[in-house]
Design a protein that fits this description.
- The complex is a heterotetramer.
- Chain A is α+β, with helices and mostly antiparallel strands.
- In chain A, the strands form 2 sheets. Chain A has a 6-stranded mixed β-sheet. In chain A, strands 4-10-9-6-7 form a 5-stranded mixed β-sheet.
- In chain A, strand 1 and strand 2 form a beta hairpin.
- Chain B is mainly α.
- Chain B has 2 domains: 57 residues; 35 residues.
- Helices cover 65% and strands 0% of the residues of chain B.
- Chain B contains 3 helices and no strands.
- The longest helix of chain B is centred in the C-terminal third of the chain and has 25 residues.
- Chain C is mainly alpha-helical.
- Chain C has one domain: Up-down Bundle (Four Helix Bundle (Hemerythrin (Met), subunit A)), CATH 1.20.120.80.
- In chain C, helix 1 packs antiparallel against helix 5 and helix 3 packs antiparallel against helix 6.
- The longest helix of chain C is centred in the last third of the chain and has 34 residues.
- Chain C starts with 12 loop residues before the first helix and ends with a helix.
- Chain D has a single domain, classed as Cytochrome C Oxidase, Chain A (Up-down Bundle), CATH 1.20.210.
- Chain D is built from 21 helices and 2 strands.
- The chains are: A alpha+beta, B mainly alpha, C mainly alpha, D mainly alpha.
- Chains A and D meet through helix 1, helix 2, helix 3, strand 7 and strand 9 of A and helix 5, helix 9, helix 10, helix 11 and helix 12 of D.
- The structure holds heme-A (2 copies), dinuclear copper ion (CUA) and copper (II) ion.
- One heme-A sits at the interface of chains D and A.
- Chain C: Keywords: Cell membrane, Electron transport, Membrane, Oxidoreductase, Transmembrane, Transmembrane helix, Transport.
- Chain C: It is found in: Cell membrane.
- Chain C: Its main location: membrane.
- Chain C: Pfam families: COX3 (PF00510).
- Chain C: InterPro entries: Cyt_c/ubiquinol_Oxase_su3 (IPR024791), Cyt_c_oxidase-like_su3 (IPR000298), Cyt_c_oxidase_su3-like_sf (IPR035973), Cyt_c_oxidase_su3_a-hlx (IPR013833), Cyt_c_ubiqinol_oxidase_su3 (IPR014206), Ubiquinol_oxase_su3_dom (IPR033946).
């Protein structure tokens, strides 16, 4: 009798959990609700790999319940009992073989996607990418628009359907730059400028965050990534240019001090600030701001 | 630990190694030290290729020490010493090559 | 960790065999330790932060001398084993003494070199390269120093107790350790010094 | 004068938080209580002779287990505090600083001071008994390992009340853990606490490799060795090759902090990425180090309670060895997002996935051990059966994480937190619980109460699912780890609430277990058989608890489940309990050196943390002195007389003629 309770409780529990996972407001699962090509493909990959693993995992779970149920010790049971049966080459081949096959499949998919989704690979698009330089500071994000000449803190805006080339560095402990709905993250490290291409296919405000712990107020490092139409973007740039103060070198020094920050806008920033930030730590580091050849654009599958 | 519980023979790591083998080992180790020094001081080949000489000499030197001084090949069976050494060298290889590979070629940074 | 050689002793000869085996495994851990230091050194080799590099400051003649000294000491520690196997206690102690002397000379040269480098302005906090350099070479030096202390203690024990299964095992182990340090030095010599100035 | 004392104290002791004052008071009170009880009952001598200086592997094992349960409590309290802070958005329960310290100490304590010693405890108590050996190969070294672990753990825990705890995460990534950002002593406590206990772990690894390879009962070939011993061997192989890397990595960080080095600093050409690379070269093998012995435990339990031979023994052995080697090949999966390039990521993604294959083989072999068995569900088996689906799901999410491009989305999110708690709790913690329930009678001589045990099992499991399943969801909602607070706008409230409820249930489960122990102690039913589960391996052939010399007579092993086979033969009348010739048994003497030497290590660590050379240098000299004294000591063993063996066996209810 004990076992039947075991099984019942277990299955009850699983249902309960499933219920939770499916009913908890579905639109919260932002990672599974991507708004850009990179996030889209990462989601496909997540689903594909989940399905592939489930091919083995589900039978294993079922097998566990069946075996435990059927071979429990009780009065007058009919199931076989073979106390010395300890080897079967056939069975061994099956359970070495099936996982090998599944892993091979997942492996192939993974390797292909790894090359394809390499973060520094430009996105294929007719539109010219816009570059945004991101600096991780103690407990805020600084965004610089080298093409537009403006800068912002804890807020980044860009046009939809245009590839965004994020260049990411740090003037503080290592962080990780992440906008879940657009795609995966990349580490923000001092002395290096990491490249991450993302793109928003839809207008909207997306949550952005720092994903690698940097100290006391790390939890306050959320920012908003706002994808708008090209016109709105241009208008916003103009507005920032006309109404916001300038970011001076002293202003930057102020920003690097530890502390949180509200959203801020700057109509200009010191020439070459980003490059300076990177090279400050990269005196000997062999991958600072070298002008390396760009890898070829990715092609659609 | 009573004696019957210990595997392997009680043969002590004593009897091996003769004066001759030590002398040969010593001479060889001197040779493999002098070669890289000469290569360096006299500038044999060009500087990139010279590195191969250095590393080969070091490797031979290592083998000499292992066999002539540390008596690796005289071990009793099962050869746990040899096995652990091979596994150890494998891990050494991983640590060194892996670090270089991961650290020196960061592709995403531009 | 030097006390791997210690522990309770036993009159069964196989207990000594266990210890020798354990020491071998300890050596493997030391191999990994040095591998990690080497990996770090290699990765940070170029990170001189604009300061002096190996080519600027290394003085090879001293390094050659200490290399030959260490090689010779490896040989003499082997001779000590031979003497021990012949049951010649005095020769054993003498050869161990010679090894200690050579090891001490090696250390002396190394300390000298370090002092020279520091006087040239390359300290442990000059740049990542020098940090890695002092750490790697210094760790080897520390091992040598440890080995010396250990050998001296061993000579005292042999003087007191003669060649017994226990002292025999201890001598075997220390000589293994000494050869091992020689091997490590070969790689320090090759990778740090020779390739550094290449 | 008074002023300067006050100033010193305010820097030295952690101040300002009622929680910490509470802890201070309770620590002082319990110290006073312990000291006065010991003094009142005149137990100091007993404590010193029987426990502190012991070299008996069983007692050392018990001390490990005791310490680790204590640490489970400490780590668990940390977990509950974190869950309390996260229960709803914008909680004001803990400040950012405090929260950061708590998740750091939680991670470090759980893995290094809870899981590791619990594992070592079981190694110690069981492995020599399974092998039919008198003790481990090096009992003195074993005791030293324990005391080093203990000093390291105490040193680390001290940071809670003195100087301040580390707050850079359980792996202390630089540059945040460097002096420039983390000037307090907390990070040095981290370094020395782990360093000292790490040296102990390394020595344990060596000790058990030698024990298993060289000190087995006659006739027990490697392929007749019980599966738990195999798992210990494979785990120790990984220890021996991984822990030196940790030692070096921490030493380098310390050189940076103490001597002004530039390994991982921002300036001076330092390279923080190298630390990340190195620490995971240890960190990944470490997680398999703690899970492999659990695999061994499942194998023993499954065979015993299915009343069937373990299925696919050779395959199991092979799988385990592969896992321990492969675990060295996968470390970069922890930093796919560091930008090492597609080649590196692809390679390490594939090696990571490969581990699923041998792990799966083990799962299948457990299942087919039960297949056509006669399964009963005593607590050890209940845990094992509960673990299988749980661990399999955790392993599956591991495989999902190993899909490198997808990991760009999972990395450092609660999805990851859920993955590792699932493999660690379902694999390691529950596995060691299963082992504890299984071997408890052998260790202490009485069984734990089954009914209460079953309650604990259900509470732990329900709590577990409630706590960690929602965390997968949170990860997919974009919640990153190590957040001390989050806003209402994020939509993370419900799941966090459920998660916290789950954590509280696990806390209750832990209390039920403590109650189980207390209850069973009170209503103790002594195990007189020595073999309460009708089990299969040698440790069950001797009385419970095992006499200090383990085996009165060395067993002669002829088959894989030797004790089981012997029982069958006796039942069929093929083998009579034979007459035996007792011989005096050779035993190691107790030694006070390990504990003294570890105390000196403690002083070295403490002195260096506070830059007090007047303390560190004498401490170091003390360490050296202990080694020298020990090296000169040739009087370390004695013989147990036949008379005493007879008396001891008779007291355990065994007549030896
Ligand atoms: C005991 C501890 C333990 C164990 C056993 C595992 C097991 C595994 N882990 Fe986990 N892991 C951790 C502890 C552990 N892990 C910890 C602590 C961290 C995070 C640390 C931190 O960042 O703080 C981590 C993080 C972590 C990451 C990094 C993620 C990130 O930072 O972004 C990855 C990525 O690949 C990973 C993968 C795996 C895999 C593939 C396994 C595999 O070994 C799992 C294999 C098992 C199975 C798959 C189930 C059984 C198999 C079958 C039934 C056969 C068939 C199955 C298939 C074909 C799929 N783990
Ligand atoms: C062996 C490893 C292990 C174990 C067993 C656990 C057990 C638990 N862990 Fe932990 N955890 C880690 C290893 C482990 N963890 C690691 C390595 C990290 C990463 C750290 C980092 O980011 O650096 C982590 C991080 C971590 C986080 C993420 C923190 C963050 O990123 O912000 C959370 C959050 O929920 C958590 C929760 C829990 C819970 C609820 C348990 C429960 O299972 C605990 C069960 C509870 C008890 C056993 C309590 C018993 C005590 C009582 C009943 C007494 C009650 C009395 C009072 C409150 C006074 N853990
Ligand atoms: Cu990160 Cu260079
Ligand atoms: Cu891992």
């Amino acid at each position: 009798m004990k076992t039947s309770k075991t099984v019942r409780c277990m299955s009850f529990l699983f249902m309960f959990i499933l219920l939770f996972l499916t009913t908890g407001c579905a639109d919260n699962y932002i990672v599974l609700d991507p708004k850009g090509p990179i996030g889209e493909q990462q989601k496909d990959l997540m689903i594909l790999s989940t399905l592939l693993t489930l091919i083995v995992i589900v039978p294993v779970l079922i097998l566990t319940f069946v075996i435990v149920w059927r071979y429990r010790d009780r009065e007058g049971r009919k199931a076989k009992y073979t106390p010395n049966w300890e080897h079967s080459t056939k069975l061994e081949i099956i359970w070495w073989g099936i996982p090998i096959i599944i892993i091979t499949l997942i492996g192939i998919v993974t390797v292909r996607y790894t090359y394809f989704l390499e973060p520094s690979k430009p996105l294929e698009s007719e539109k010219k990418p816009i570059t945004i330089q991101v600096t991780n500071l103690d407990w805020k994000w600084l965004f610089q628009y080298p093409e537009q000449g403006i800068a912002t803190v804890n807020y980044v805006q860009f046009p939809e359907d245009v590839p965004v080339r994020f260049e990411v560095t740090s003037d503080a402990p290592m962080n990780s730059f992440w906008i879940p709905q657009l795609g995966g993250q990349i580490y923000a490290m001092s002395g290096m400028s990491m490249t991450l291409y993302l793109q928003a296919d839809e207008q909207g405000e997306y949550m952005g965050s720092g994903a690698n712990f940097t100290g006391k107020e790390f939890a306050k490092m959320f920012f908003t990534a706002n994808a708008t139409s090209q016109e709105d973007f241009d208008q916003w740039v103009n507005q920032v240019k006309n109404t916001s103060p300038e970011l001076t070198l002293d202003g930057y020094k102020e920003l690097t001090k530890q502390g949180t920050s509200d959203v801020r806008h700057f109509s200009a920033f010191p020439e070459g600030l980003y490059e300076m930030t990177v090279t400050k730590y990269a005196a000997s580091h062999n991958h600072g701001l070298s002008t390396r050849v760009q890898p070829p654009a990715r092609v659609k599958e | 630990m009573s004696k019957q519980s210990v595997q392997g023979t009680a043969d002590q790591h004593g009897g091996h190694g003769s004066l001759k083998s030590y002398v040969i080992g010593f001479v060889l180790s001197l040779v493999f030290t002098i070669i890289p020094i000469l290569a360096l001081e006299n500038g044999w080949l060009d500087s990139d290729k010279r590195i191969i000489i250095y590393l080969t000499a070091a490797l031979f030197q290592f083998i000499v020490q292992l066999f002539f001084f540390m008596h690796l090949k005289e071990e009793d069976k099962p050869r746990y010493n040899l096995m652990s050494l091979l596994l150890g060298l494998f891990i050494v290889f991983l640590i060194v090559i892996g670090s270089i590979w991961i650290m020196m070629y960061n592709m995403v940074a531009l | 960790m030097a006390n791997v050689n210690a522990g309770h002793h036993d009159h069964h000869p196989d207990q000594e065999e266990l210890r020798t085996f354990a020491f071998w495994i300890y050596l493997m851990t030391d191999v990994i330790l040095f591998a990690t230091l080497f990996a770090t050194y290699i990765v940070l080799q170029g990170s001189t932060d604009g300061g002096p590099g190996p080519k600027d400051l290394f003085q090879m003649s001293g390094i050659y001398a200490s290399t030959f000294i260490l090689l010779t000491s490896s040989f003499t520690s082997g001779l000590a084993i031979l003497a021990m196997n012949k049951g010649n206690r005095l020769a054993l102690m003498n050869w161990l003494g010679v090894t200690v002397f050579l090891g001490a000379s090696f250390l002396f040269l190394e300390i000298n070199e370090f002092m020279h480098l520091v006087s040239e302005g390359a300290t442990i906090s000059t740049s990542a390269f020098w940090t890695a350099f002092y750490t790697l070479v210094g760790t080897h030096g520390l091992h040598v120093a440890l080995g010396l202390g250990w050998m001296i203690i061993l000579i005292m024990q042999i003087a007191k107790r003669g060649i017994t299964p226990v002292t025999k095992r201890k001598v075997n182990i220390i000589s293994l350790f000494w050869h091992f340090l020689d091997v490590v030095w070969i790689f320090v010599f090759t990778i740090v010094y020779v390739m550094g100035v290449n | 004068m008074w002023e300067s004392v006050k100033e010193f104290a305010s820097e030295f002791f952690v101040t300002g938080d009622p929680l910490i004052y509470g802890a201070d008071v309770s620590i002082v009170l319990s110290m006073i209580a312990i000291v006065s009880v010991l003094t009142y009952f005149k137990k100091w001598g007993w404590l010193w002779r029987e426990w502190l200086t012991t070299v008996d592997h069983k007692k050392i094992g018990i001390m490990y287990i005791l310490a680790s349960v204590l640490m489970l409590f400490r780590g668990g309290v940390d977990a509950l505090l974190m869950r309390a802070q996260l229960v709803m958005p914008e909680m004001q329960f803990l400040s950012g600083d405090h929260y950061n310290q708590i998740f750091t100490t939680h991670g470090v304590i759980m893995i290094l001071f809870m899981a590791m010693p619990l594992m070592f405890g079981l190694f110690n108590v069981i492995v020599p008994l399974q092998l039919g050996a008198r003790d481990v190969a090096f009992p003195f070294l074993n005791s030293l390992s324990f005391w080093l672990f203990f000093s390291g753990a105490m040193l680390f825990n001290l940071s809670f009340v003195i100087g301040g705890s580390p707050d850079a995460g359980w792996l202390a990534y630089p540059p945040y853990s460097e002096l420039a950002f983390n000037p307090g002593p907390g990070q040095d406590f981290y370094i020395w606490g782990i360093q000292i206990s790490g040296i102990g772990s390394l020595m344990t690894g060596i000790n058990f490799i030698v024990t298993i390879l060289k000190v087995r009962a006659p006739g027990m070939t490697l392929m007749k060795m019980p599966m738990f011993s195999w798992s210990v061997l494979s785990s120790c192989i990984a220890i021996v090759f991984a822990f030196p890397i940790l030692t070096v990595t921490l030493a380098l960080l310390f050189i940076d902090r103490y001597l002004g080095g530039h390994f991982f600093t921002l300036d001076g050409g330092g390279n923080p990425m190298m630390y990340i690379n190195l620490i995971w070269m240890w960190g990944h093998p470490e997680v398999y180090i703690i899970v492999l012995p659990a695999f061994g435990i499942f194998s023993e339990i499954v065979a015993t309670f299915s009343r069937k031979k373990l299925f696919g023994y050779k395959s199991m052995v092979f799988a385990m060895i592969i896992i321990s080697v492969l675990s060295f090949l996968v470390w970069a999966h922890h930093f796919f997002t560091m930008g090492s390039g597609a080649d590196v990521n692809a390679f390490f993604a594939v090696t990571t996935m490969l581990i699923a294959i041998p792990t799966g083989v083990k799962v299948f072999n457990w299942l087919f051990t039960m297949f056509r068995g006669k399964i009963t569900f005593e607590t050890p088996m209940l845990w094992t059966v509960g673990i299988i689906p749980n661990f399999v799901i955790g392993g599956m999410t591991g495989v999902l994480l190993s899909v490198a491009p997808a990991d760009f989305q999972y990395h450092n999110s609660y999805f990851l937190v859920a993955h590792f708690h699932q493999v660690i709790i379902a694999g390691v913690v529950f596995g060691f619980f299963a082992g504890l329930y299984y071997w408890w009678p052998k260790i202490f001589g009485f069984k734990l109460n089954e009914r209460i045990g079953r309650w604990a099992f259900w509470l732990w499991n329900i709590g577990f699912y409630l706590c960690f399943m929602p965390q997968y969801a949170l990860g997919l909602m974009g919640m990153t780890r190590r957040l001390y607070s989050y806003g209402w706008d994020k939509g993370w409230f419900e799941m966090n609430l459920v998660s916290t409820i789950g954590a509280v249930i696990m806390g209750a489960a832990f209390l039920v277990q403590i109650w189980d122990i207390a209850h069973s102690l009170k209503h103790m039913k002594k195990d007189t058989t020595g073999d309460p589960w009708d089990a299969r391996t040698l440790e069950w052939s001797i009385p419970s608890p095992a006499p200090f010399y383990n085996f009165a007579v060395m067993p002669q092993v002829t088959s894989q489940d030797d004790w089981h086979e012997r029982k069958l033969r006796i039942e069929q009348g093929l083998e009579k309990p034979e007459k035996v010739e007792l011989e005096p048994i050779h035993m190691p003497k107790n030694s006070g050196i390990p504990i003294v030497m570890s105390m000196f290590w403690f002083f070295v660590g403490f002195g260096l943390i506070f830059d007090w050379l007047w303390m560190a240098v004498p401490g170091f000299i003390g360490v050296i002195a202990c080694m020298v004294v020990h090296s000169f000591n040739y009087d370390t063993d004695y013989y147990v007389t036949v008379e005493e063996i007879k008396r001891t066996e008779a007291a355990a209810g065994r007549v030896i003629t």
